[in-house]
Amino acid sequence: MTLPRQTGFFGHPAGLRTLFFAELWERFSYYGMRALLVLFMTAPIAAGGLGWDVAKAGPIYGLYTAMVYLFSLPGGWIADRLIGQRSAVFWGGVLIMCGHIVLAIPFEASFLPGLGFVVLGTGLLKPNISTMVGHLYAPDDERRDAGFSIFYIAINIGALLAPLVTASLAQEQWFKDVLTGWGMSPASSWHWGFGATAVGMALGLIWYVVDGKTLGDAGMKPAVTDAADAAKAKRQFWTAAAVILGFVALVAALQVSGTITLTTQSVSNAFGVFLLLAVLAFFSWLLLDRSWTTEERKRLVVTAVLFLGAAVFWSVFEQAGSTLTLFAERSTQNELLGMSFGSGKWQSVNSLWVVILAPIFAWLWVRLASRNPSSTAKFSLGLVFVSASFILMVPAAQLAASGDRVGWWWLLGCYFLQTIGEMCISPVGLSAMTKLAPARIGSMMMGVWFMATSVGNFIGGQVASVYEKFSLPQLFGVVGLYALVFAGVMALLVKPIKRMLART
Ligand code: GLN
Fold it and tell me: What residue segments make up the domains of the chain, in order of their start?
């Protein structure tokens, strides 16, 4: 394969520019919609929402965000074996755009199919665009890590801008007045928010195609080139698709005939069991495979430990879209300099902190040089910070318990602590996975990393479902303690892991 042009974007390959803006807009559409998701589901029908209670909205939020990331595994597999990353990213973008267009249609029936399209599309796009960043550099190119940091900033610029746009359209009075002026129902404002995310994805797709020449032939072909293997992969794909569709059709038929009654909770519980079994089966298969060398097996054990830390971290962190959004909506003064703003905008704050803090952390890790803590130690630290973010919210929740709204600085501080935690976990984890993975399963490790996010999102959604059942100080306190316990577990593992990796 010829490497794409090696300069042209801040001293990085020009292809990074193409992927930077494509991912920026993809994340714009993902986070723009996520900012509204729980709010739209729980808003009263008269206000244009679905009028669902939190106990139903929480698991749906968790299921949706968990599936988005879980589909990264098949998404990576399809690119590797069938169509190559280049097409996978394109078709993923098309599916995401279609999903958001469907969500923009103001009918309740459009909601779940719209989410389904976004799940399939993101599964195809997200892991493969990240892998393509790696393809831009020669294996020994020292700019690779910096390239990933620039890419992480793109993610967060998209995530920062999106809620500002979508929450303004969906929640603020000025846009409702505009709609009324156009003779439309102000309650349809949510769907304009969803529509904006479709426009974002369309811009990303246009950019990806028009600027695509910078990518050379990166990701043009599947990694599997042997004709017999390709034919086998095709058969496996169609068999899996038929089994899944058959299963869905069977469950739908049983539901329609009244043989079974599916509730959000039962589907969510079943998915939880499935996810747990999938993770256990995957790691058992990985660790029990006899073909690994002793060295490789040790590194795989470390990936399993990091997976655990990451899943716990994301389960707390990803509550930004669920419990913390509900707290912003119901218990925070959403007002700055005398101007009020939609609660969905809070979801921009983490990304704002990332854009500010990421360069500081990049500098810090380099500065620490040989004293740079191990990945396990950084994961433990990340968990301490995310735990602190929820413990900080305990007094805020106590203040809010009297019915008063608390000042915006509580959530600002909470997101500050969470972002410090994210800096210790997210870029560190991505790079650790690529370093620890045995070469022949390199790309699958990207899928494994996102599987930890999937587990985390699922648990995060479950927590939201009990938002109204527990007293808030208690709920936030328990979440904080849970993260702290796992911070302790990771801290205890730092030395044994160091010793294990040092032993040859
Ligand atoms: N915020 C990052 C992104 O959107 C990381 C998300 C995650 O893995 N939980 O890509």
Answer: 15-222+263-502
SS3 label, residue 318: helix
> Which structure tokens are listed for 503?
């032993």
Residue with CA nearest ligand 1 atom 3: 155
Q: Does CATH place domain 15-222+263-502 in 3.40.50.720?
A: no
pLDDT in tens, the chain (504 residues): 566 677 778 888 999 999 999 999 999 999 999 889 989 999 999 999 999 988 888 888 888 989 999 998 889 889 888 999 999 999 999 999 999 999 999 888 889 999 999 999 999 999 899 888 888 888 777 777 778 788 888 999 999 999 999 999 999 899 999 999 999 999 999 999 999 999 999 999 999 999 999 998 888 888 777 888 889 989 999 999 999 999 989 988 988 888 888 888 888 888 889 989 988 998 898 888 888 888 888 888 999 999 999 999 999 998 887 889 889 999 999 888 888 888 888 988 999 999 999 888 878 877 777 788 888 999 999 999 999 999 999 999 999 988 889 999 999 999 999 999 999 998 788 778 777 877 667 667 778 888 999 999 888 888 877 877 888 899 999 999 999 999 999 999 999 998 888 865
Distance between CA 77 and CA 447 in Å, rounded?
9
According to DSSP, the residues that pair with 335 across neighbouring strands are 340
Question: Does the global pTM surpass 0.70?
Answer: yes
Q: Where are the beta strands (DSSP E) in 236-343?
A: 335-336, 339-340
The atom of ligand 1 lying closest to the CA of 456 is 9
Q: What SS3 state is found at 421? A: helix
Which residue from 312, 345, 485 is spatially nearest to 411, judged by alpha carbons? 345
- Closest ligand 1 atom to Cα of 354: 1
Helix segments in 71-188, DSSP class H: 72-78, 84-104, 111-135, 144-171, 173-181
Of ligand 1's listed atoms, the one at least distance from the Cα of 30 is 4
60 CA from centroid of ligand 1 (Å): 19
Contact 326, 467 (CB under 8 A): yes
Question: Which of 426, 433, 457 has the most ligand 1 atoms within 8 A of CB, as the residue to mutate?
Answer: 426
Instruction: Say how far apart CA 121 and CA 424 lie, in whole Å.
Output: 29
Query: Separation of 349 CA from ligand 1 center, angstroms?
Result: 14
